[in-house]
Amino acid sequence: MITIMIISVVIIAVVIALSVFTVNKGYAFKHTIDPLENNPHLPKDDESKK
């Protein structure tokens, strides 16, 4: 019974450690955005720039 409890605690600790690791790695990721002049999703409106 004790061995099952120890194995369960080890598995829970590993899952929590991996969760903390992935969340920290996700927050550390540098997100970038495209400048407006290079955005392919915006319509080209050359006449309004003149």
What does this structure look like?
It comes from Bacillus badius. The protein has 50 residues and is mainly α. Helix content is 62%, strand content 0%. The protein has 2 helices and no strands. It is rod-shaped and about 70 Å long.
Shape: rod-shaped
Structural class: mainly alpha
Q: Provide the succession of SSEs.
A: HH
Q: Compute the CA-based radius of gyration.
A: 25 Å
The proportion of residues in beta strands is under 5%
Largest sheet composition: none
Number of strands: 0
**Please, what is the average pLDDT?**
85
Distance between the termini: 79 Å
Q: What helical percentage do the residues reach?
A: 55-70%
Query: DSSP helix count?
Result: 2
Low-confidence stretches: none
InterPro entries: YtzI-like
Keywords: Membrane, Transmembrane, Transmembrane helix
Transmembrane segments: 6-23
Protein name: YtzI protein
List keywords for this structure.
50 residues; mainly alpha; rod-shaped
Summarize the structure.
Keywords: Membrane, Transmembrane, Transmembrane helix. The chain has 50 residues and is mostly helical.
SSE topology sketch:
Layout: H1 2-28, H2 46-49
